[in-house]
Amino acid sequence: MEGRLNIRTDDRPLDRRMEEIAWGVFLMMLGGIWLVPEALVPRGTWLIGAGVIMLALNVARYLNELKISLFTVVVGATAVAAGAANMAGIELPTLAIVLIFIGAYVTLRAVTQRNRPAHA
What we know:
With 120 residues, this protein is mainly α.
């Protein structure tokens, strides 16, 4: 367990491969959902699936001692909640909620990072 405290940030190829796997699973999920008659797929299924994939990607990052993405954790959790709400017949302003989270993330990141080198 002690090794997990030292998060590796230098393993970009592994992180990139995990992101590609997540994208592949996401696209296959969407295609699979679209193949099934609409009447058989509960509303919000794709949101729950997308959220679970984002959360699973971060679990995989954690288990491989890579830096997790707070952004995709928040968006993933929001997607799961919105999908569950849709299944329960509750309409949430999902896009507005996600935009608020994105804005808060960008703002907090800018406020908390000091003396960041300028991008070339």
